[in-house]
Amino acid sequence: GNSVTQMEGPVTLSEEAFLTINCTYTATGYPSLFWYVQYPGEGLQLLLKATKADDKGSNKGFEATYRKETTSFHLEKGSVQVSDSAVYFCALSDPMDSNYQLIWGAGTKLIIKP
Amino acid sequence: SAVISQKPSRDICQRGTSLTIQCQVDSQVTMMFWYRQQPGQSLTLIATANQGSEATYESGFVIDKFPISRPNLTFSTLTVSNMSPEDSSIYLCSVGASGVSGANVLTFGAGSRLTVL
Q: Which residues of B touch A46 (CB under 8 A)?
């Protein structure tokens, strides 16, 4: 079945450091891939998405590229800020699924120190 | 994208009581979803609520414990019945929207954080 594997957290970085949060997936067909972010005390927000191989999703300085050959969708940011501290979830969906079912990763907590 | 209002945002409840969480959407949507997020965990889908029909529950969740109402296309409620400390979680309401690219995107409410003593 479909699954998503994320690197375990917490990930602790200093401000302005380079960020990578790894995400790999197992799926049949051609899933859509997402990164959601959950800031402290809040619900989840869509950060970025990609719907086909080699697509790059980007938002707020974050990027992730849909790599079908390595079944990966790693999240990157060149220079993190304290305000990026949050939990990041990788997820996938089958675009043929009209029920909006997402397969979620376990989440990676990111802590940015000033 | 849709704007979702959930309430209460948080509550502390006594064992054995029930609590109803409300979810209001600023536009009409066909499908609404209820998720549970246990402390430090990822999201688990509880059920899908379609207007005019009974909710569809995921494995491990039953209607007697988590009754859901969906009276119209902009509103839903989730009740957590006969609560125990194991029900302490964040409960999230979400709705789906088809993106321009065809990806099915979920929008979430801010969540309701329940603590059961």
A: 1, 105-107
